[in-house]
Amino acid sequence: MNHFNVIAIDLAKNSFQVCKTDHRGHVIFNRSMSRQKLKELLIKEKQSLVAMESCGGTHYWAQYAVKHGHKVKAMSARHVKAFRQGQKTDANDALAISIACLQPNIKPCRLLKVEEQCEQGVMRIRELLIEQRIQISNQLQTLMLEFGLPVAKGDKALRETISLALEDAENSFSFYFRFSLNQLYERYKSLDDQVDELQTQLNAMTKNDRICKRLQALEGVGPVCAMLLKIALNQVGHFSKGRDAAACIGVTPVQHSTGGKQKIGSISKYSAHNTLRSALYQGSLSVVSKIEKKEAHTHKDVWLKELVARRGMKRAAIALANKTVRTAFALIAKDENYQPQLLEA
To answer: Where are the alpha helices (DSSP H) in the chain?
Structure first.
């Protein structure tokens, strides 16, 4: 790969900065191009290493470059920034990308196939609708509290409170406020129905997917978690072992070691796949919360009971999430079904 020319692209919507260098890093040209000119360049150029930052449009251009015979390396913008010299300009950014892609210690970002992009899109849309529903729910509860109408926990209580408030003609609501409140409430109900419909579609997707069905046999893994795990781990060649996958998702402790002394801290707040880690944690916590009342049938049950007694429920949940990721990686890599180790009778 190091003997190819490098075509470094600073991605944008319509105007792209392209820096072409040889394998020794000598700049051949560094200029701005339109979308059509960039496509023509990738078509006519001989096999090269196409490098770019991982951002919006990366998957499209990576797939386009691979289609025309090029190698592709997408990198985190945080890693590329360290190689930029001078002021923040498109030309300097493109040059930094061309330098960073030749460094052996810069790990490439994972590139998805079109099918995986579609699956990820479904999960992103579902996540957005849930966030909007929570925002509107919080707004409705706050408005009701200001009028002395506290709302109990749960969607059912919210629906009952808002419906009664809208139907009560003797309360102090003005016509304009009542109209606006009804609009917001209708939006809340519409989002609720859309989330339920998307969840039904997601259940159908995972039911018909061989990998997702296999992953749902793991403790604390449901349809949502199974689909997120599949998207994150399906390209097993991206990780050399399950430990790397767990570290990428963010369920391993952060290390800060120096002078031969190892210091292991907590899990990272920022360098993580937050959506997947949150889903794994919630699923693991539901398993851990019931483990004390459950009779141990497998070696994992015994391990969890001992861990909860020694370290507490939350740490045990993270440890189970770590083990889940590594097991899921092994199941996908080896194309096997999950078989828990039962205790001897």
So the answer is: 35-44, 58-67, 77-81, 90-100, 114-146, 155-167, 175-207, 210-215, 223-233, 242-249, 274-291, 299-311, 313-334
CATH number of the domain that 43 lies in? Answer: 3.30.420.140
Name the residue range of residue 312's domain: 216-256+269-334
Q: Which residues pair with 48 in a beta bridge?
A: 5
Query: Measured between alpha carbons, how far is 200 from 120 in angstroms, rounded to an integer?
Result: 16
> What's the pLDDT tens digit per position in 290-336?
988 888 889 898 999 999 999 999 999 999 999 999 999 999 999 99
Q: Looking at the 3D structure of the chain, how many domains does it have?
A: 3
Q: Does residue 126 sit in the same domain as residue 151?
A: yes
Q: Establish if 264 belongs to a structural domain.
A: no
pLDDT at 158 over 60: yes
* 32 assigned to some structural domain: yes
Q: What is the mean pLDDT of residues 237-262?
A: 87
Q: How much is the pTM?
A: 0.88
